[in-house]
Amino acid sequence: MDTILKYFDPDRATVDLLTKGLDCHPLLAVLLSARGISTVEDAIFFLNPNFQNLTDPFLLKNMDKAVDRIFTAVKHQEKILIFGDFDADGVTSTALLSDFLEYSGANVSWYIPHRIKEGYSLQPDHIQMAVDQDIDLIITVDCGVSSHEAVRDANLEDIDVIITDHHEPSATLPSAVAVVDPKREDCPSGLNFLAGVGVAFFLVMGLRKFFREKIFWGDIIEPNLVDYLDLFTIGTIGDMVPLINENRVLCIAGLKKIRQGTRLGIKTLAETSRIDSRKIDSDDISFKIVPKINAAGRISHARICVTQLTSPDIVNAEKTASLLDQLNTKRQKIEREIVVDIEHRLVKNPTLLDRKLLFLWDDQWNPSVLGIVASKLSKKYFCPVILLGSSGEHAIGSGRSINHINIYQALMESETLLERFGGHARAAGMTVKKGNLPALCQNLNRHMEDAYSEKDFQKTLAIDAILDLEDINYTLAKELDRLRPFGVANPEPVFICEDIRVISSYIIGNNHRKMVLEKASSISRHQVEAFHFNINDLDNLPDYYSKIAFKLKINKFKTNAAQIIIEDF
């Protein structure tokens, strides 16, 4: 285990207080304290959240202007265009707002741009499209806060624009009717952890309240916003924003909604993923549902997904779910081919890994999948990775980083070599003139050398507690399951066990090891089922571990059983 382990040292008084106050297992109290929870009251709300303390949507800056303008458009049957993004967050945002406005009787349509042909966010060309369609009002979701030129063009064409976004704005905002973005410096809402779909949901909250005050609903039954929380949950988990506060409250309610199976598009996606919708959890959404939604935007067109998520017809939903499954399989194949290509390069030229940043490009690579490939390689080799597809005059690609190494800042310092770029500390996308690639590679590596030390490139793993293998059982796994859904700012706990013997094992798939473990020095013979996924060296499989780092889970395929997933050893 070359990884540096960082052990959490809990405050014992807090742990004792929570253990007694909640009448819970001491380990659950330790994990709650690791999340900054120090009172019984806060712990109860974390474990059993409710809607009572949701932030008022009108605390979002410009919310009042946005709902007033949308109300006017709905009332007078103006033509509204919802403009979204091509990832799971943008697709669910589009479906959510479209659902609500259609229910309200609005004259509404929606549009998702093509990832490669049109690129991200609202562009001037889209304004001409809106003119051709006689659009009166454009509402962006999960994009738009940097679309200054497009909004300026819209104003010249007498088209109003409302921006709803969650990305970092620049010093000046587009000249829209309203810019609803919790990351605005002057926004007092405290909701800067929301995904794009979260901002769209708060817009719908504001609209429903405003419509009620205007006595709009009349004979229409006022919509139950819980019905939109399935979309909120998929977009929020898919965008990997912090699962805290409102995000946690609404995702837990959204998971319950998904388990009811009422939205045909999600139900059929679960079925094609071989998930029992009644037991679906955040892992299923992260690793099975969201990749299928994102695959459409990467391999085909993300508009397929909006149609899927709003489909009222089971036959069409099943057909589209099957198509998305095929696109995801195709996406995985393309990724594997690129990974194999890169691995061959590294074998031929291992010195590529001597530098602080792995920077590669190729004319044959599909730019749409390079972010996922970069993510896999950054985890394997534990260094920042930038990959670009260079088939045209411009190379288009993505980067992924590690630890606290800010890849966006590195790109900022080389922006004169870039045509376009965006992102944040851990992930970024970019467009570069092909001739600038060698200089960009040199600049970025120089930045990594100058700005960071060796310790910044050291792999670390946060350990929540040391357990005895004999303490691992279904009861403990069920207790820890109360902390779900796991995600950013609420990570799945990682534990350490020592002195472990492998009783039996076999390989499943190509490189996954299924084992039965027990403590080597014990006579109790207490056994635990374990999995170790994506093993690199199948010729050297240990039959003894002095130490393993792992996650504890409920076994979905056995009644009242636990299992562990090995993270490191």
Short description:
It contains 18 helices and 18 strands. It has helices at residues 12-22, 26-34, 40-47, 63-75, 88-103, 124-132, 148-156, 196-213, 229-238, 245-259, 264-272, 282-299, 303-309, 314-348, 370-381, 407-412, 437-451, 474-480; strands at 4-7, 79-83, 107-111, 137-141, 160-164, 178-180, 358-362, 385-389, 394-400, 418-423, 427-433, 460-463, 465-466, 495-508, 512-519, 527-532, 544-554, 562-568. The model has no long low-confidence stretch (mean pLDDT 94).
Topology overview:
Blueprint: E1 4-7, H1 12-22, H2 26-34, H3 40-47, H4 63-75, E2 79-83, H5 88-103, E3 107-111, H6 124-132, E4 137-141, H7 148-156, E5 160-164, E6 178-180, H8 196-213, H9 229-238, H10 245-259, H11 264-272, H12 282-299, H13 303-309, H14 314-348, E7 358-362, H15 370-381, E8 385-389, E9 394-400, H16 407-412, E10 418-423, E11 427-433, H17 437-451, E12 460-463, E13 465-466, H18 474-480, E14 495-508, E15 512-519, E16 527-532, E17 544-554, E18 562-568
Helix pairs in contact: 1-2, 4-8, 5-8, 5-9, 5-13, 6-7, 8-9, 9-10, 9-12, 11-14, 12-14, 13-14, 14-15
Question: What does this protein look like?
Answer:
The protein has 569 residues and is an alpha/beta fold. It folds into three domains: 4-11 and 462-568, OB fold (Dihydrolipoamide Acetyltransferase, E2P) (Beta Barrel); 57-244, Alpha-Beta Complex (inorganic pyrophosphatase (n-terminal core)); 349-457, Diaminopimelate Epimerase, Chain A, domain 1 (Roll). It contains 18 helices and 18 strands. The strands form four sheets. A five-stranded parallel beta sheet has the order 3-2-4-5-6, sandwiched between helices. It has a five-stranded mixed beta sheet with strand order 7-8-9-11-10. It is globular, with a radius of gyration of 25 Å. It starts with a strand and ends with a strand.
